[in-house]
Amino acid sequence: VQLQASGGGLVQPGGSLRLSCAASGSIFSLNRMDWYRQAPGKQREFVASITSDLTTNYADSVKGRFSISRDNAKNTVSLQMNSLNVEDTAVYYCNVQWWRGRLYEYWGQGTLVTVSS
Predict the structure, then answer these.
(1) What pLDDT is attached to residue 28?
(2) CA 10 to each of CA 47, 55, 73, 112: distance values in angstroms, whole numbers, following the listed order
(3) Which of 10, 39, 78, 109 shows its CA 20 to 30 Å from the CA of 84?
(4) In this predicted structure, what is the pLDDT of residue 29?
């Protein structure tokens, strides 16, 4: 399984970015796709998740500003990020996981989001 993330870049405070992640390989259809982020000097933290039945969950810090979506047919997950602030600066990672006898979990390579004026 491979995950390819894209869409990061430099944006001013208050701006928007859209991240995408495409998963390929042998992926079980009933899975959860997540976004995590890691800011400089900090631990990786959960940002948002979406299950194959489109149930979503968000970290409190991004609720109302970020929106996660997915295309099950294409095994892609997106993260629309609005009203960005400097605290959102981080490397963003996509993740796919499912349970089938055991936990299967895969990570993408990360895409850098920098929010700065």
Answers:
(1) 81
(2) 19, 30, 30, 8
(3) 109
(4) 82
Instruction: Give the tens place of pLDDT for each residue, 43-53.
Output: 999 999 999 99
CA angle 64, 79, 63 (to 5 degrees): 15
User: From residue 102, how far is each of 50, 89, 90, 106 by CA, in Å?
Assistant: 20, 34, 30, 13
Amino acid (1-letter code) at residue 103: L
67-85 pLDDT, tens digit each: 999 998 888 999 999 999 9
- Cβ density class 54-74: b for 16+ within 10 Å, e for less: eeeebeeebeeebbbbbeeee
- Tokens representing 67 are 């929106």
In three-state secondary structure terms, 88 is: helix
